[in-house]
Every structure is written in C-alpha cells, then in structure tokens.
Known about the structure:
Helix content: 25-40%
Distance between the termini: 44 Å
Structural class: alpha+beta
Number of helices: 7
Oligomer: single chain
Number of strands: 11
Order of helices and strands: HHEEEEEEEHHHEEHHEE
Largest sheet: 4 strands, antiparallel
Strand order of the largest sheet: 1-7-2-5
Amino acid sequence: MDFLAVHNLLLREPNLLLPLLELSNMRKEDSDSYQVKALRSHESLDISDKGKLIHVVKGHLLQQVNNLSKKKQTINAIWMENDFIFHNVFQSTHYEYIALDYVELEIYDANVVLQELSKQPFFPDLLIDVLKRQESQFYQYSHMLTKDAQERVIDIVKLLSTKEEDGYHMPKTLNYLLLSKCCQISPHTAKKAMQELELANKIICKEGEKILIYNADY
C-alpha cells in the first residue's frame, strides 16, 4: 500500500484501524481468529484471557473492574460504537465487559490482526492512533472523577443518551445502580443527584421519557 492510499485512509472516519481491517487479507471465515457476537442489555461478554481485539460495531460496552474482596464493581471505561479494545494484548487485565444496551461486536485474535497489519508500511502510525484513543478514553473517565456527584451524573447521562433537538434522551437502562457504577458513587448519591437535577428542571419527563435539557452551563 503506497503513501497516498494510506493518506486517504487517514482522512476516513471513524479511525484508521477499521478501513485497514476491511482491506486486509484476514480470513473471517476462520472461527478461531474471528467471530461476531451480539449481547442483550446487561449481558456480559464471555471472553478468554488470550489476546483479543474487540470492535464495538453497535451499542455501548461497559468495562468493569470486579473487586472480589470488597464485593464491589466499578466501571472504568465506556466503549462506544466503532471503538477498538485491545484485551490482554499489551498487558494482562481482569476486566469484564457488560452490554449497556443491545450490542454487536466483532472479536478478532489480536496476534492474527497484528501480524496481518504489520505488513503495512504505516503500522506504527496505526498503533499510535489506537493507543492515543485508549489513553483519551481513560483520561476522559479519570477526569470525570475529579468532579462532584451531580457533574459526574450529567457527564454519564450525556455520554449514554441519544442527543436530539430538545436535549439528551435517556435510555430506560440508565438506572441509579448503573449510574452509581459509572460515576463511582453510591446508588443513594446517584438518586439524590438525579432528584436535584429534576427539581432544578434540568431533567424533565416528556411522554414517559426522561430528558436532560440543554444548558449553557454544561
């Protein structure tokens, strides 16, 4: 692949990895190196410790850390449509992945993908692109934790809701327990923050649907 071809790929959305995978010679019929999986809301992804590349085709995938000693579960990343997750590739992790809503995934054997893509002259740029996205995801999430409870709730509601002309339409799956895990606060605190937003008319109920309205402050 010459420079101009790669340059055109760089201008494509949503990222460089997706079009390169589409143009690669990977054998998707090989179930050992590629599979498609659909998850229902709140269903967890059953995945081995072997290095995998997970492509979120549709929906939101929550990355969860389970602290068995404290019997505590917290979310430390929320992966969106067309995100790629390198699971146990660069370091060993113990993450669990939970579907927020209906989720469609493509799961690749990471070694097969990296071997295939390493043949491309701009392979280092691809890795830099992916790692920057991963760092951005973790930074965005850790930065949210510097805010107070109500600001955290607003950030998560905006992230996981559907943006329309009148505001952010919240999915029914976005309950107090989920908010508490995503915001790393207690369910009681999450409920209180939501009630305060409703009392301030920042969250309204319209035709049985909760909507976070637009506001210049956030």
